[in-house]
Structure formats: C-alpha cells, structure tokens
Amino acid sequence: MIRIEDIIEKVENNRPEPDIEVIRRAYMFSALHHRGQVRASGEPYLVHPLAVADILAEMRLDEVSVSTGLLHDVVEDTLVDLDTLRSYFGEEITHLVDGLTKIAHISNLSKERQQAENVRKMVLAMITDVRVVLIKLADRLHNMRTMQFLKPEKRARISQETLDIYAPIAHRLGMGKMRSELEDLAFQNIYPEEYKRLSKEVEARRPDLDAALEKITKTIEERLKENGVPFVEIQGRVKRLYSLWKKLKKQKITIDRVYDLIAARIITFDDKKNCYLALSVIHDTWTPVPERFKDWIAIPRDNLYQSLHTSVIGDGGQAFEVQIRTREMHQIAEEGVAAHWKYKEKKLGKQQEDESLDELRKTVEKLLLPLVETTNDNEDSEDFLESLKLDLYPKDVYAFTPMGKVIQLPRGSTPVDFAYAIHSEVGDTCTGAKINGRITTLKTEIQNGDVIEILTTANSKPSRDWLNHVVTAKARNRIRHWIADQQRAESIDIGRKLLEKEIDKFRVSPKKLINNDEEMKRIANEYGLSRPEDLLASIGYGKTFPRSVLGKFLGAEKFAELDPDKRKETRLESGMKAVKKFIGLGEDAIIVQGIDNLLTTRGRCCNPLRGEPIIGYISLGKGIVVHNKNCKNVKQLMVNRDRIVDVEWAKSERQEIQSVKILATTENRTGMLAGITNAIAEIKTGIRDARAKISKDDQGLIEVTVEVFDKKHLDRVVASIEQVPGVIAVERVNSN
Ligand code: MN
C-alpha cells in the first residue's frame, strides 16, 4: 500500500511551497469515512484513493488535485455530503469532488443514457476546471490496473467505456502515456483471447526484435555522435499491442507485414534545429520510405503533439519508424495538458498562473468539445459518444472564432451576441455573419460548435432592432447605451429645430436666444437643468414647450405683445403659408431619419409606410410619433397644434423592411390562398403570415402579412393580388 508520506514527498519535490496540511487532512478524512470498506481484492478501500492521489502527484499536479484524489469517492461511496465536505475543505475541492461524483441513479433512464448523463456532467465540470478530468483519468487508470478481481462481464463493460470515452479524452488532451496504458488494459480485458494470442506472437519474435532494436539504437547513437548532433537519449520500442491489433484488423495483414512493429525514438536537446539535423543523419544512414515522412513540428497536431516521423528500410530489409523530438516535445507527447502544471525554473506569480490556467482551460475546451459534439446527425448510430450530443449543454452554446478561440454564450445567442463577446467595437460595427462559411443573417441562432466570422463595416452603427434578438447582457447594454447616446443627440437636434421655429414666429433673433449661451443657461436653470443642451434635449423629448421657453425669455409683457396668435399676420407670412400649403409640406419640415430607430417612432394606429404622407406629433417624453396624414387619430391630435410638426421621409441608404397586413376578399373557391401567395412571391416579396377564413356572407377572407420597403412596393403587391382570378377586393388593414 502506498504511504501518504511518499505522496507528500512527491508533491514537495514537484511544487513550490505546497500546502501539505490540506493533503494530510484529506487523508485523515478519507481514512475515517472509508473505514471498514474493502475493495474487490479484499484490500482496505483506502488503497484506491491513495493510489489515485499518487498518480496525480506523479503527474506533478497541485495539492488541491492530490487532496481531491484522496477525497474523490467520499461523496459517492460514504455518507458524507457536499455540504459537509465544503465545511471541511472549502469550495474549490468540493467543486472538484462534485464534478467527479456520479449523478444519483435515475431509474427511468436507460443505462446508456445514464452513462451519457454522467459523462455530460463531467465534461461540464471539466470546462470550469480542467483538473476534474485529470483526476477522473487517474481514478480510471487505477481501476483499470486493478480490475482482475472483478467478474469478466463487468471488466469488459468498464473496459469498453474506457475505450469509448476515457482513452479518446486522454488522446485529445495529448496525454499519450495515459492513453496507451488505458487502451492496452482495456484491450486485455475486452478481448482476453486475442490479447493472449497476439502477445504470444510478439513474444515469439521478441529476441529478434530486441536484437534489431539494439543494433538500430546503437547505429543511431554512433551516427549522431559522428555528425555532432546533440541528443539526450535514444529509445527503442516494440509497437503496443492494442495499436498493433487495430492495425492488423484494419489492414487485414499478418504481423510480418507491419512496417512499424519496431520503432526508435530520438530525444534531442531543446532546439528543434537538432531534430532536423538528426533527421538528415537518419535519411543519410538508411533509405527513407517515400510518403512516410511527417513533420508534426512545423504543423503540430491539435493536441499540441510535436515530432518528426519517418520510416526507413533497415539493413535486413526490415522497415522501421524513427520519431525525433526535443525533450520538451517529448514531455508534452507523454503528458499532454498535464505537462502545463510543471513549474518552470522560476515561480510564476499568482496572476500569471491564473492566466496560464485560463489559456489551458481554453485549449482543453477546444480539444474536448468536438468529442462530445459530433457532427454526425445519424441518431441510430451505435457510437456511444454520438448519443451524448443531445442536450449536452442545456444552458450554453460554444462557438468558435475563425482563429479557433472558444466563445461561450447562453443558448439562443445570435451573431450580434457573438460579435459583442469578441469586442464592443466589433459588435457596434457588425453588419453580417458567416456561420460555418455560409452567409447568414444576424438573427440566426448559434448552434454548438459553429465557427462564426463576423463581417463588419467601418462607421456602421448598431440597430435598435437588434434588441429583439440578443440575449447576452453585454450586447444588450451596449446597444441600449448607444441608443441612449443617439437619442440624446437627436433630441438636441430636434429641440433646436423646434425652438428655432418658435423664435421665428415670435420674430426674435436667434443671436439673442439660441446662440446666446448665457441666456440659454439661465433659462435651463429655471427648469432645473444645467446646460443649454439639456434644455434643447428636453424640448426635443417634448417635456418642455418652446413657447414656454420664450415666455421665460421675453417675460409676460413682451410675450403677450409678440404672441403670433394675437398678432396680425404680415402679408409675407400669410403668403409663405399659402406656398407651404400648396407644396404640402413645411419648408422647415423635420427630416425623419429612419423611423423606428431612435427618437421617432411610427404610430401604432396607422403604421405609416415609407412614401405615404406623414405628420409628426411631439408626444410627452417619447419624442416624435409619426402618423399617416390620413390617420383618424391625427384629427384629435390637431387640437394641440403646437405639438404638431411637419416631417418628411429622409432618403434612406438601405431599404428598410416593414410588415404590412393586407386583407383580400375573394370568391369562396379552392386555391385562393395559394393563388394569392403565389402572386406575392412572384414579385419577390416576403410573406410573414397568411391565413384564410370564410366570412358570414360566404366570401373568402384572406389575411396576408407582407414585408415591403415602401408605399410603391405595397401598391405593386396590392395590384398583383388584384390580378388573381376570384379576388374581389384588396385593402390594407391596421392592427387596431
Ligand atoms: Mn474512485
């Protein structure tokens, strides 16, 4: 049995200033609660947590991981609950143990589903803390090493799970050593007969293989020395049984035809130049097999693996593989992400450590997500991992930038959320997106694993409409903030225009009021506002009336004297009015910049369409509401003549789509709905909704909501519906 003191010694050797006390406490706690429990082997249960902690200490993990190794089974297998654990060991260790604890048995789930749920839970925990998976792998490794006491069926089942889930995870994380051992142990337990047969075959060749390896490594050593290539070590090895078995099965060949049954490995000193030097020596000594050379140094594998691989023809005509890598590359090939825990010469500051852990976390996410996020939609697939795909992340989706950075977002997020998650600037200027290489709208819901490229245009601005399809607080706040800024700028602009109109009526010089900062400030203060812009904004919002501002400026007596309502119009003024009336719009009409965007909104009652005659009403606190000139509400609003302003459509740079409801009355016959929707589709117009019913007097009533750009567009839609045989009348309807 491994002693706790040995584990502590390893941690002390591998880590700077470790908190040994927590390891001792974890040991005591685990021993106390597992007391009396025995393993299938008959040994005390404590052997297992100790062995797991030892594997973790070997991996040079921190004292928190080692302590968690000691405690990893207490919640699952003893009466201790998470709250108790938390009170003794705090949040960090408890979180790790929780991630490692199987979820309670849910009886209505199939075994496969249950297994999927457990892996799902682990992956989720893992994404917040990588140590969860490293501890889980250590746990699994020890169980695999000691499964000879279990029944064959149980051994096979656990081993299959190891091959399906844990070995691929170890591989993804670049942990070559862990993966190899798990695979060979699993192979041995699932296919005991084949394992025996294959190892016999290899053993029979062992003396020859060893002799060949001996000769090869010696030659390599001599040749490297002759050529002055610095190296650390030459290793010789026989191919692992599991990968040999897979190869034989896949290629349907016999063992004699395996070209890489034996392999040599050169570990060089730390400059990658030495790897290429060694390679040239190898190719100079033996004939390389064409197309067998792989440069994983120039292009590392996803799991950070780096090495040169080449196959050459040996002296007896026997081919073998040579792998060449530096010491550091070797360590990463063996330990993968676990190697990140190795402290470099100098101790890292806490913050640097956090940053490097954060980097690591991102790497792990990127490596593991594809494992549980397969792209195969075949639900009948036997592959267990594919069954994990469903509902893997109920709350979050993970998407990637084209550079491979992982962005975590709440489910339902859109490219706008993604853009703001990257950078506020990217969000503010985004105009479109490519998802997995295809152009999509900004409303598209992001799916797990999507690769998203945000398209931006300099000087482009956020749209209020985005608020309807963003879900992240960051995006929402930025857009709202931007709208508030814009609204203020626009309300100041509108306020200025309204005040100018008013002082013109009173024949006051702009110099004396609007352009006189002192005076504006004085009046602003009277309204409890501090700056002239605040006063203008307040007028723009409809909170302060320009007429009342003039009252404060002129004083009661002067105001009454100049009041245009009581004053006789000059001939010029009445002439101007006539001209304005004739052209239909005031020459000082306020330009409406994109209705529904900022301070101007469409009246809900009449939903004016671009191109229709409109009029503006300054509503209290809501800025200008734009109505159709024919809207029945306008007549009532006219009572407050001071608050009516002339408005006109601004020339818009981009076409703004608006939904309009149309009602067609038709003869009662079949195919009317199809005929009408066809007619609309033919002129390339979007249909948002369409429904048909029969009226009391036996006529067809078909209500269609179409997406149009302006009045002209709508007229075209109406005209084409009118062409459909059986249509009696077409009219536009408003929502209320
Ligand atoms: Mn365990």
Keywords:
binds manganese (II) ion; 26 helices; elongated; alpha+beta; single chain; four-stranded mixed sheet
Describe the structure.
The chain has 736 residues and is of the alpha+beta class. It has 26 helices and 21 strands. Strands 1, 2, 3, 4, 5 and 6 form a six-stranded mixed β-sheet that branches. Helix 2 runs parallel beside helix 4 (63-71), helix 7 (111-128) packs antiparallel against helix 15 and helix 19 (473-505) packs across helix 21. It binds manganese (II) ion. Manganese (II) ion is lined by residues 48, 72-73, 139.
Task: State the shape.
Answer: elongated
Average pLDDT score: 81
Number of strands: 21
Low-pLDDT ranges: 343-350, 372-394, 578-588, 593-598
**Cα Rg:** 38 Å
Question: Describe the biggest sheet?
Answer: 6 strands, mixed
Question: What is the end-to-end distance?
Answer: 82 Å
Helical fraction equals 40-55%
The kinds of small molecule bound in this structure are:
manganese (II) ion
Number of helices: 26
Portion in beta strands: 15-25%
Secondary-structure content class: alpha+beta
Short characterization:
This protein is of the alpha+beta class and 736 residues long. It has 26 helices and 21 strands.
